[in-house]
Amino acid sequence: MKKLALLAPLAALMVTTSSLSAADFKGSGATFPYSVYQAWIGSYHKATGKEIDYIGKGSSAGIKDASARAVDFAGTDAALSPKELAAAKLYQFPGVVGAITMSYNIPHVNLKLSRAAISEIALGKAAYWDDKVIAEANKGVKLPHQKITFVHRADGSGTTFNFTYYLSKISPEWKSTYGVQKELNWPGDHHVGGKGNTGVAAQIKQTPYSIGYVDYADAKENKLEMATIQNKAGEFVAPTLKAFQAAAAKADLDPKKDFFAAIADPDGKGVYPIVAATFILVPTDAKEMDKKVTAFYDWSYKNGDADASKLGYVPLPNELVKKIQTYWAEKGIK
Amino acid sequence: MEKLFKTVSFMSATLVMVLLASIFFSLFHTAKPAIEEYGFGFIKEKAWDEEVPIENDIAATPVKKEEPKAAVSSDDDDLASMLAGNTSDVPTKTVYGGLIPIVGTLLSTLIAMIFALPIAMGIAVFLAEIAPKQISNIVGIAIELLAAIPSIIFGMWGLFYFAPIVQSFVGGYQVSLLTAGLVLGVMILPFMAAITRDSMRTTPDVLKESAYALGATKFEVIKDIIFPYSKAGIIGSVILALGRALGETMAVAFLIGSVFSLPTSLTSPTVSIPVAMANSFGEATGMKTSALFYLAFLLFIISFAVISIAKFYFLRKDNK
Question: Which sequence spans correspond to the domains of chain B?
Fold first, then answer.
């Protein structure tokens, strides 16, 4: 009898907690788009009254969750190949586009980085700021003879994945030695890891003569200096929303391949090269639920541009949205 | 009622044992693939997540990925070809080794103890014996508040305010073994100070007064009466502090630099076991997960060994 009396409040507690977390549907995964998804979820709730949970656990955890059907949708920064999607019985479509900046800390210098300079810095080969490869693009600027401290993410992240993808595109040496990874042991002997984007941003801010890759949203918030970067066409382009949009418009995402691609370093004029798309996964065997998820993203593509731009993300170009809608219709999840 | 009380307390005690054993076995079980793959060599292997060529492995012809080459190579920039990673024909395997995180954990804990132990003893002696009552109370409360600060706050404080100060004194990197060790020291300080003070206060006044009556100075009383009397409590506080320092994750993750390289100086960035786990777990799959669990298993054993050695070695003398 006593045991029962003890159990009763416990049972009551369990019932209340389970009813509290009754969102209409829930997702987990990538942290890179976390803030824009939260903003969209908030606006969507105001507009429709629907409740959505999205937990930023990291891309791999999101993929695991979606494959195990623990969530109704998952976010991932690394697109899955059609083969992987088929194996895990998932559909995939892009959610939003973001940009990665080369943020640096050199007093009184407006830095321009050529493609060679970025890869040499990442490979740990350019040791000093006045190295020839950096100086070439910065004629007339007095670069200090100081050691470069390269700051990178310590934890596994989609930002690292997309940045290493970009490095693989601009540097054959990077591609053959390190390739595309979410986390790696960085080469060179003068680098340091920061925990999360906050950690990297703080390191750059506080360490003179440092440079690192930070997503645009965090770089802006921390008021970091962002380098102007040479694109595929050879132009030097500053990180601005307009240049990001130009890059997103060039993104070659093919619905036939379930949008499987990374979009960094596109061709064309006026594009900022280090851009990244982040993706949504939904199960193929829960179409009714998928329709709710796609309805949310459909709404967000239409109404979420202001939220996205404000946070430093790039809304998907209209043509791409049309492709996604066709993809949904084909798969019967619209 | 007596019986109920006895049963409940017995169950609570058993629960600890069951939990300990189940944690041990689940760690061991998940780490098993890595343990089988790398064996004890894991402890002295410097490489972490590095691809090395397989040396003439006759038994297992590595399963080559039978990707249709034509489809991939038609588009040189295709993501799939890059994800396949290494482009050379030599079969490789990925090696994980625990030397660097193990060294990082032990060194950062050592720095923390070297920094915190004398200060904690000083605080405890001051509070228990020297300070007037009011001051002792105020400082005592401050110490206890310090113990209640969550570790993430120590991490952020360390990163934004303490790291630049350390750098301005000793140079080198802001986030390093030294910074992490010192902040760890600050974190364990209150535990040691508070417990040591409490155990010093249990010294019977009769003993102290007799010593004073025999003409002992304050220093002699502290050295010869109070320290020996409260030894068990002091060692207990050190053990608790060691346990916390070995396993501290969040604050150290912000401060140690998270670079997989052996520290060449106090100000080099390196990595510790809990930090390696916190950083890599979210994105780890397959053998990496297993290797991380192997690290966790080793941390479990290290903590267990350090604490039992401390307990056995120091408390044995008491029973003479």
Answer: 26-96, 99-314
| Mean pLDDT confidence for B26-30 | 91
Give contacts of A146 with chain B, Cβ < 8 Å.
none
Domain at A100-248, CATH homologous superfamily:
Periplasmic binding protein-like II (3.40.190.10)
User: Is A261 in Cβ contact with B79 (below 8 Å)?
Assistant: yes
Q: Which CATH superfamily is domain B99-314 in?
A: MetI-like (1.10.3720.10)
Q: Residue A233 and residue A115: Cα distance in Å, rounded?
A: 11
What is the pTM (predicted TM-score) of this model?
0.80
Confidence of residue B97 (pLDDT cuts 50, 70, 90): confident
Pairing verdict, β A228-230 and A225-226: unpaired
Q: Which residue of B has its CA nearest to A151?
A: B257
- Give exposure, A276-293, as e/b (b: 16+ Cβ within 10 Å): bbbbbbbbeebeebbbbb
Residue in chain A closest to B279 (alpha carbons) equals A155
Chain-chain contact of A57 with B282 (C-beta, under 8 angstroms): yes
- Residues of chain A positioned with their CB less than 8 A from the CB of B260: 185
Flag whether the ipTM exceeds 0.90: no
For residue A229, the SS3 value is strand
Q: What angle do CA B163, B166, B172 make, to 5 degrees?
A: 90
Start-end of CATH 3.40.190.10 domains in chain A: 25-97+251-262+275-331, 100-248
Domain A25-97+251-262+275-331 class in CATH: alpha beta
Out of A154, A206, A260, the one facing B258 most closely (by C-beta) is A154
Residue of A nearest to B86 (CA): A176
